[in-house]
Amino acid sequence: MNRKAKHMRYLGRRLFSITTHHSLFTLLVVLLSLVTLNQCKVGYSFSGVNISEEVETYSVEYFPNRAPLVQAQLSQVFTEALMDKIQGNTSLTLNTDGGDVQFSGEITGYETRPTAITSDEVSARNRLTISVRVKYTNLFEPELDFDTSFSRYEEYDAAANLTDVENELIELIVEYLMEDIFNRAFVSW
Fold first, then answer.
1. Could you give the CA distance from residue 37 to residue 46 in angstroms, rounded to a whole number?
2. What pTM was estimated for this model as a whole?
3. Residues near 184 by Cβ (< 8 Å), separated by ≥ 6?
4. What is the arithmetic mean of pLDDT over 90-98?
């Protein structure tokens, strides 16, 4: 065997040895990482939801409408939307007798007012605003409790009659409110 062939065989064995050691090191690092992560108590998900593993249930009390202007179905729509949001985005189970995390509160505002006035001093756009006060209680992590007001609005053409667009506007505003409330309770960035 000539000198060049011996050198090539030596380099091949050396490369195999380095690759094997590198693979073993990588495997060891991955295994240690998995063991370390397994010891953590905080739940993690790719959706950004951060709920302690101890929390298994939730409850939502009926949100009465205490706004000066009362929309008849808003309390029911809001309460059901909050339950649906939690049910659809967490693995928590609804408990009507008080859950590990609890939501209560009231609808405090429901109003429409002009936002854009034309040169003729006539309203071109109106704004429907819904405000709610939400009390959140976490039995396992009381430092996360809050009692906060949330408010969202949607504008509509002043030529439209509110009763014609009201249901659609309420649906949009409640959806925005659900995002705000859910993020405050369950998403920690």
1. 15
2. 0.72
3. 134, 136, 146, 148, 150
4. 92
